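User: Structure with 6-O-phosphono-beta-D-glucopyranose, tokens only please.
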Amino acid sequence: MNQYEKAFPPGFLWAGALAANQCEGAWREGGKGVSVADVVPLGKFGISRAEAEAALAGNTPDSQYPKRFGIDFYHTYREDIRLLAGTGMNGLRTSIAWTRIFPTGLEDTPNEEGLRFYDDMIDAMRENGMEPIMTISHYEMPLNLATEHGGWASRKTLECFMRFAEAVLCRYKDKVRYWIDINQINYAISDGYSSLGIFDEDHENPAQAHFQGLHHQLVAGAMVRRLAKEINPDMQMGCMCGDATAYPATCKPEDVLATLQENQLYWYTSDVQMLGYYPRYMARYFAENGICVKMEANDETLLRQFPADFHSFSYYVTRILRALQPEEKAPRMLEGLMNGEQNPYLEASEWGWPIDPIGLRVALNLFYDRYRKPIMITENGLGTRDVPEADGSIHDIGHIQYLRAHIEQMKEAIGDGVELIGYCPWGPIDIVSASTSQMSKRYGFIYVDLDDEGKGTGKRSLKDSYHWYRQVVGSNGEQL
Ligand code: BG6
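Assistant:
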């Protein structure tokens, strides 16, 4: 029997997580094509076909599309990575913008300038003692694949994605050990546009299109893992879901059952990626909701042969749910994640996201019990409106309290026996928000002087949490 031990293991990855579309900016430089993120205006995440096409037509100023400028990381990454390294962080997660490598997704050969950019960025991470953790797709597919080719609902997008994945796996095979195929893959259940490049209004049954798109992404993940094992068997290939585990609002059995079913729906992608097959509860869900996922002959064999090496998830919130009333219409999936009720036992962030550190311990245990493979927390954090004092200092106590409470629970989960290998607080340097495109929703240890319209000096300043994280990393999680 294993010894009971409640400490972070040696070599634990104390990292941070970014995404290209939220930090790089330079949306038209280096041969980059237009991505789905580049046409999302301030305040939105999903947009309609008409909105995407109007934005592309270019009648509105760039300042209304914050993901076009980000924090200009494309130009500042060297200095930003050096600053981040000052916390002692030994890992950094970011994504490779698909459109820097294949501007429209359709090219036969990759854009060398884009590949060189990530060569340099990854080298900068290594020079600063950081293990790169690269996400291949993080809400930034070529817009053209969405507007002209049906997004992931079409098998063509899978083929284009594999050209991109092959280019980056081959190029960075000796530099990058940890890979995530697709960011928060399961949230595509309720998000058509940013996750799948699908415009719901193009489909009579959007749920059908989402699940078909998800199937193509799941198969792509297995193909990526097969390829990675051929290129360099040492690569560690992770999958990733967003965790927003639901609790039943009451102990009424109907509420408990409905909550289990909702959780299963959001766990099914990980079940496929970690266990290698579609769980049976999805066969029932598809049958009862009139969904027919088209598979090709080899798809299920691929899924079975190439499960992920480790599981990873983002963790921000938990939800509470109760059974649908007879007059409410299932499926509930397209309503999105935040429609559950507020948990009366939890406080919420300024953006209404419930804060639940113990829920992280629950999630870690749930996933470890389910898969028995190492876990990395690839995102976690609190969005706050940080305001510098007159002397320039930034006392972001909210970040410290939030992260401290979550790290304490991670340690408890390690004590429970969970094999936790890494932790990536979200946005260690302030970046543009994914869901609202606000710059003012800040997670960072480093403050970036830019507002929601990209106005400001861009100057970087260290917040109190920066010094606190250095102490956490330096003590391997002992001094919180
Ligand atoms: C995750 C995404 O859902 O949450 C990130 O993978 C995102 O891209 C993060 O930034 C935090 O969400 P937001 O909307 O506050 O930026």
